[in-house]
Amino acid sequence: MTTSFTHLTSIRGQVAVVTGGTAGIGAGCTRRFAREGATAIALGRDAAKGEAMVAELRAEGHDAHFLACDCADEAEVDATSKAILDRWGRVDILCNIAGGWIEHPPIEEVTNAALHHSFEWNIVSKVLITQRFVPAMKANGYGRIVMMSSTTGRRGRMGAALQYSTMQAGTIGLTRRLAVELAPYGIAVNCIAPGTTLTPRARRHSDERLAATARTIPVGRLGTEDELAHAIWYLCTPGAGFTIGAVLDVNGGNWTG
Ligand SMILES: NC(=O)c1ccc[n+]([C@@H]2O[C@H](COP(=O)([O-])OP(=O)(O)OC[C@H]3O[C@@H](n4cnc5c(N)ncnc54)[C@H](OP(=O)(O)O)[C@@H]3O)[C@@H](O)[C@H]2O)c1
Q1: CA 24 to ligand 1 centroid distance, Å
Q2: pLDDT per residue as tens digits for the range 43-99
Q3: Domains of the chain
Q4: Is 182 helix (H, G, I), strand (E, B) or coil?
Q5: What number is the average pLDDT over the span 213-242?
Q6: Residue 57 C-alpha to ligand 1 middle, in angstroms?
Q7: What are the DSSP calls for 8-55, one per residue?
Q8: Is the CB of 71 inside a 6 Å radius of any atom of ligand 1?
Q9: How far is the centre of ligand 1, averaged over its atoms, from the C-alpha of 75 (Å)?
Q10: Has 164 been annotated as catalytic?
């Protein structure tokens, strides 16, 4: 089967999978895709949170689903990707949003375990599920894949963990390499690099710290989940077929290259 989506901006009827799609930027994507008329499938580890999030979208009449999956766990990714392909038969959009960091100690205190954990959480999680869906995308001659990076992968910033910044820069390499491999199959792979965005994760910081961060942003505030989802939505539209291996910086002017 070859899929041909010709409308530049419509993702209506497409099947969209969002890893980490149950909170923050990922939830913004799940909501946006569902409201655009796609089948939106959110993956996350906490089933109660995920079920509550998609219940809201279903109450609005949208086609939203939650599947519990730790995207860094190969067995769980195997089972979940199989369940998705068995039920929906295809995946048109894959947003690899799951990831994060916990602490940011100086280099002397970064443990080998922390390095490996960050690699599993931010890189392996993206590669595993992408591997599982690429064959179906190739068979359809169509796909949109977005990788989550960060401004911290673009420039040095002390407030982020060393291992996290390293993985976010690595995600950009992953994106560029995969983009040239998959472009001939109608699959566009791109990357989003957000600045600080007001999500549950960001809200763990004090109001003072968030206000100080906002003062470093020319727009004068933090980003919103909906603004990030809007930028990601563009990369997931049929019209983004000539946008290949790009890094889209969405940071209110905090870093402009
Ligand atoms: N917020 C920012 O300022 C910012 C800036 C740049 C980049 N980012 C990146 O954007 C992504 C989302 O950030 P956020 O601030 O929206 O985070 P968040 O508020 O903590 O939400 C993260 C979401 O991902 C899920 N998740 C985390 N690890 C997962 C895993 N291994 N498998 C499946 N689901 C997982 C979480 O649900 P469960 O815990 O239930 O699994 C949750 O739904 C992260 O990769 C982060 O590094 C964020």
Answers
A1: 6
A2: 999 999 999 999 999 999 999 999 999 999 999 999 999 999 999 999 999 999 999
A3: 15-250 (3.40.50.720)
A4: helix
A5: 98
A6: 19
A7: SS--TT-EEEEETTTSHHHHHHHHHHHHTT-EEEEEES-HHHHHHHHH
A8: yes
A9: 20
A10: yes
| pLDDT (tens digit per residue) in 88-127 | 999 999 999 999 988 888 999 999 999 999 999 999 999 9
Q: Is 45 in the pocket of ligand 1 (CB under 6 A)?
A: yes
Structure tokens at 11: 């993702």
What φ, ψ does residue 224 adopt, rounded to 5°? Answer: -110, 160
Render pLDDT for 194-213 as a digit per residue (tens, 0 to 9).
999 999 999 999 999 999 99
Question: Given the CA of residue 202, which atom of ligand 1 is nearest to it?
Answer: 1
Give the DSSP H/E element, type plus range, for residue 141. none
**Ligand 1: which of 30, 117, 197 to mutate, most ligand atoms within 8 Å of CB?**
197
